[in-house]
Amino acid sequence: MRDKDADRDRAQWVRNLGLFSLIISDVLVSTGVGIGIGYLIWKKWGGPWWVLLLTSIAGLAVAMVRLYRYSERDWK
Length: 76
Description:
By secondary structure, the protein is mostly helical. The chain contains 2 helices and no strands.
């Protein structure tokens, strides 16, 4: 009986670790893409500096929406 509880706890721990790594990578990638696009527009194409700020915020907003969807799916 004890082995089944340990296996269930381990499976839950691995699942939580996977979800955590998915969330962290999604936030980093989405924000990084926003920063990259903003930097490209700002430096390479001569756009205003605030474009970098807007695209960074947009990347973070996309990450937060995806985080909300993950949490909504996980807590059903």
